[in-house]
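Sharing a chain and its predicted structure for anyone who wants a worked example. Both blocks are below, sequence first, tokens second.
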Amino acid sequence: MPALKFRVLLDSESKEEVFRDILINDGDSFETLYKTILTAFNFQGEQMASFYVSNEDWDKGHEITLMDMSFNEDDSAPSLMNNTMIRQHIEAPNQKLILVHDFLNMWIFLIELLGIEKNPVSMAQVVLKVGEAPDENSKGDIDNVDLQFTSEKMDANHYLEGFDDFDEDLDEYSEQEFDNIDDLDI
């Protein structure tokens, strides 16, 4: 059972690159990889998440979810992290995966297989840290947004001015008989 070395890059608005290199056995589950990534970036993991098998263009492929949210309506139901081994979805030497954590705030991690180690590791581990991870709650933080509200009372009559004129235009056409809209003399 070899160990896989993945680079996990946090896709963020920061100009600074933030990534972690993780060493994990190919027989470990995606759930183990998910928990290792969250720990490496100091995230709590109290949100929904999914991995997507990807390709060279970072397109989303097969989904591997944290929890089963399907209704078993189609044949392409997503796999579950806890019972899907990583090796089941390694299709290329530089296999790419996408992890979406917290679908409301959309934390996206781009994951690429860097190499394969001959010897297994006793447990998944972070072998390299580059950059400071942002606070998990920093996205969508209402304190960071400058919102301006007005409490101006709206006058409905202002918005309906000229609306009745439309009815008069229709009256002239309502008396004509036609089979097709193209028959209207407009």
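Comments welcome. Residues 104 and 140 are 9 Å apart (CA to CA).
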